[in-house]
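Message: I would value a second opinion on how I read folds in token form. Give me a protein, with the fold worked out from its sequence. Write it directly below this note and I will take it from there.
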Amino acid sequence: MIAAREQLKADINQLVVYTSTQAHSSIEKAARVAGIKPENFHLIEVDADYRMCPELLQQQIVRDIQSGLIPFYIAATVGTTSSHAIDPLTEIGAIAQVHNIWLHVDGAMSGTAAICPEYQWIHQGLELADSYCFNPHKWMLTNFDCTCFYVKDRAKLIHALSIMPEFLKNQASTSGKVINKAIYSTQ
């Protein structure tokens, strides 16, 4: 979310986040950490299968744009914690692309199932996402709190989290060949 926020260089008070009423509370927590105003965090209603309704998402985005706000982040879910509902990624991704909104797909709960060929359909539309995560500790018998996080354009993530004070600059760090993950340097 911070990478999405930083690439816009917009007034943080105008930025809006969208996710479904069934999404994990970590999305709201991330919005708070990123400095998004609580009134700019919009929960989108779901259908009878607990999936985010793309039509309602589109309507809310249009209302927000008309109000002078800036939609910047949508969090869709592949397997909600409460019901394993899978949001319609293709439709949500198309909306995100039309409005130039960062699409994150939270596959923490059920995304791992796509390792099986018969469940790969759950990722239809994932190619439209800017970022994606899933948790191997939930289904892959790894130790607790193992999360895999992918981002389409790592430069945006690295730039958003970079701090390069003078005392850390050296030939290796400024060559562009070494990325010090401790400081997320793009130098």
Observations:
- The beta strands are 15-20, 41-44, 70-77, 102-107, 131-134, 148-151.
- The longest strand covers residues 70-77.
- The chain has seven helices and six strands.
